[in-house]
């Protein structure tokens, strides 16, 4: 072969290698980023007059172009949208007050006018028009918006609405890769949990004696101990016997603390345990005990002992009795009576995931009717109003509509829909909207620096709820698993890459000792004093699932 022919052959082989690498060595982020940018121009389930309400009445940050519920003005022919870029602002955390407590539109207009001319303006037929036509032209930052009614001659009538908000950073991959494999991160986290004092408390407990602690979220924490130890018995065989003993004891402790057969809440372990909770010991969060159910099923998987499978089934039978024909059950109830602490309905995405698991993995179909009722409640309430309210025990359940939204409610339900055997087009579209909502309100792909020149928390990250504005590991997990389920059904690569970026943050937040800190702020894991055992187990579950794609 001549040198020339050899060179041509080498070039051909190199071209083939390049094409193969381009195809197999990673995603086309230029294409994915363009797809994301286009999607951000569309509002997420905007309100419809006389139909779905506007869900964003307390929202102060957006990744997708928003639309607001501003009133029409008599005699108006058009509405002018003026947006001021408040470039002097640094990153800040705040919650919007109720609508009636906000400054008047005229007062806000004067405030923004003092900043100079608007950065962006456009005319629209309705004051409820979305910002999609200018969203792609608006740099990241804080904005003040004033919408002014204009008469047929072009003269201003009056401002009809104002808003101030943060136009958030878009998804722009690639993001940092994980510093270790998902599997290794999960095993490190299991080993860390194994040394945790909750596990030691379970070891020290003796059947027939009271569980000695003055404060623990029992169903969440001990249910998660059972699950964590059961998983470790499987994935780290050298610890198998020790972990199985701990997992069994944790499950037995939950059974011992639950009301007996015949009680209103039979088999349902309490949320609160320990004297420091005071009167709250009479109450329980309705769906917190699902953590206990996860623990029972994990112990059954590890041991084959049907006692624990049966306990999970008995728990679900109690839910079947509690939840009415319309799928309603209060978010928080009294243990003695099952009556609601108030009448805010629990949103049942996590319960539906458990019913789905009982059917698909264990062949238990007796709760199909319960699933139908819960879906009806979600459809007629949470979805119809697009009110993805928080379901946490550490904030008041007595909230105004939309006052404390969360990514978790949306993520659980989106995942449930996409894990059906054959989700409908409508269910797929709803799951996509729920994931977009979670991103719009709670995901930060990046953050500006605060007034100390530092980043507030790790990104990409998912905030938990309006009442907890910081990246939480379990929130990253919740979105990522839902997005992965969406990708598995639709093949939409953008959702998979968003999920991976968020899971990589979880891995990169992990300490060398294996701890996955709950709040991923500017501190080393463990130093914040905030380690929620159940959140870490969420992360372990998600990491093991994503490890199948490595």
Return residue spans where pLDDT drops below 50 for at least 5 consecutive residues: 6-23, 524-528
Radius of gyration, in angstroms, nearest whole number: 26 Å
Rounded mean pLDDT is 91
Tally the beta strands.
12
What oligomeric state do these chains adopt? Answer: single chain
- Amount of helix: 40-55%
From the spread of the alpha carbons, the general shape counts as globular
What separation lies between the terminal Cα atoms? 42 Å
Element string (H = helix, E = strand): HHEEHEHEEHHEHHEEHHEHHHHEEEHHH
Number of helices: 17
CATH class type of the domain at 196-346 and 348-387? Mainly Alpha
Query: If you consult CATH, what is the topology of the domain at 196-346 and 348-387?
Result: Glycosyltransferase
Q: Report the biggest beta sheet as strand number plus sense, adding barrel if it closes.
A: 5 strands, mixed
CATH architecture assignment of the domain at 196-346 and 348-387? Alpha/alpha barrel
Per DSSP, what share of the residues sits in E-state strands of 2 or more residues? 5-15%
Strand order of the largest sheet: 1-5-4-2-3
Structural class: alpha+beta
């Amino acid at each position: 072969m001549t040198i020339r022919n050899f060179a041509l052959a080498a070039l051909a082989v190199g071209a083939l290698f390049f094409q193969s690498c381009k195809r197999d060595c990673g995603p086309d982020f230029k294409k994915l980023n363009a797809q994301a940018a286009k999607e951000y121009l569309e509002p997420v389930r905007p309100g419809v007059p006389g139909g779905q309400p506007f869900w964003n009445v307390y929202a102060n940050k957006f990744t997708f172009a928003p639309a607001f519920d501003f009133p029409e003005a008599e005699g108006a022919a058009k509405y002018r949208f003026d947006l001021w870029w408040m470039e002097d602002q640094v990153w800040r955390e705040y919650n919007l007050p109720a609508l009636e407590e906000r400054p008047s539109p005229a007062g806000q207009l004067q405030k923004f006018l003092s900043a100079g001319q608007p950065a962006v303006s456009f005319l629209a037929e309705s004051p409820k028009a979305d910002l999609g036509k200018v969203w792609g032209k608006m740099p990241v930052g804080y904005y003040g918006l004033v919408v002014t009614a204009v008469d047929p001659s072009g003269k201003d009538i009056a401002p009809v609405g104002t808003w101030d908000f943060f136009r958030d950073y878009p998804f722009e991959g690639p993001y940092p890769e994980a510093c270790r494999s998902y599997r290794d991160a999960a095993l490190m986290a299991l080993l860390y949990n194994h040394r945790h004092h909750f596990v030691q408390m379970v070891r020290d407990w003796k059947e027939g004696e009271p569980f000695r602690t003055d404060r623990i979220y029992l169903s969440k924490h001990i249910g998660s101990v059972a699950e964590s130890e059961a998983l470790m018995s499987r994935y780290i065989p050298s610890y198998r016997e020790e972990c199985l003993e701990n997992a069994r004891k944790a499950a037995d402790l939950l059974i011992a603390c639950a009301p007996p057969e015949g009680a209103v809440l039979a088999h349902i372990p309490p949320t609160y345990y320990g004297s420091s909770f005071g009167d709250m010991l009479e109450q329980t969060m309705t769906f917190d005990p699902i953590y206990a159910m996860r623990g029972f099923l994990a112990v059954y998987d590890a041991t084959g002992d049907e006692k624990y499978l049966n306990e999970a089934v008995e728990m679900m039978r109690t839910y079947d009795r509690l939840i009415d024909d319309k799928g309603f059950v209060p978010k928080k109830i009294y243990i003695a009576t099952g009556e609601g602490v108030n009448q805010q309905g629990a949103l049942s995405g996590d319960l539906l995931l458990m019913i789905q698991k009982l059917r698909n993995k264990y062949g238990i179909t007796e709760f199909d009717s319960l699933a139908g009722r819960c879906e009806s409640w979600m459809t007629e309430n949470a979805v119809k109003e697009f009110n993805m309210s928080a379901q946490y025990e550490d904030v008041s359940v007595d909230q105004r509509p939309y006052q404390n939204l969360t990514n978790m409610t949306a993520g659980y339900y989106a995942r449930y829909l996409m894990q059906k055997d054959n989700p409908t087009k409508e269910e797929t579209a709803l799951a996509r909207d729920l994931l977009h909502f979670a991103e719009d309100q709670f995901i930060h792909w990046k953050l500006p620096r605060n007034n100390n020149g530092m980043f507030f928390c790790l990104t990409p990250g998912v905030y938990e709820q309006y009442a907890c504005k910081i990246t939480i590991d379990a929130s990253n997990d919740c979105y990522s698993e839902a997005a992965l389920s969406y990708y598995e059904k639709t093949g939409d690569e953008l959702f998979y890459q968003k999920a991976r970026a968020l899971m990589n943050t979880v891995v990169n937040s992990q300490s060398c000792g294996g701890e996955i800190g709950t709040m991923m702020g500017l501190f080393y894991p463990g130093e914040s004093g905030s380690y929620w055992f159940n959140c870490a187990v969420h992360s372990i579950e998600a990491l093991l699932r994503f490890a199948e794609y490595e």
